[in-house]
Amino acid sequence: MRGIMLSVVPTMICGSVDRYVRMDGGDKLVLAGTLGMGISNAVLDYVLGSSMGMWGIGLATFCCYLVYLAILCLHLLQKENHLRFVRPMGWARELGRAARSGSASAAMRICQAAGMIITNVIILGYGAENLAGATIRNSVAALFIFLSMGLEMATMLLAGMFYGERDEGELVKLLKKSVSTELVMMVILAAAVYVFARPFASIFTHDEQVLEVSVVALRWYAVFLPTGVLAETLQYVYQGVHNNLMANFICVMSDLVLFVPAALIMTGAMGVLGYWVAPLVANLTLLVIVFLIVSIHGRKIPRTAGDWLMLRPDFASGLKAVWSFSIGDNSQDVVRISQALQDFCRENGVDERRSYKIALAAEEMADNIVEHAFKTSGGNYIDMCAQIKDDGDVTLRIRDNGRGFNPIAYVGELSDDGDISSNIGIKMTQKIVKDMDYRYIGGLNNLLLTI
Question: 0.85 cut: is pTM over it?
Answer without folding.
Answer: no
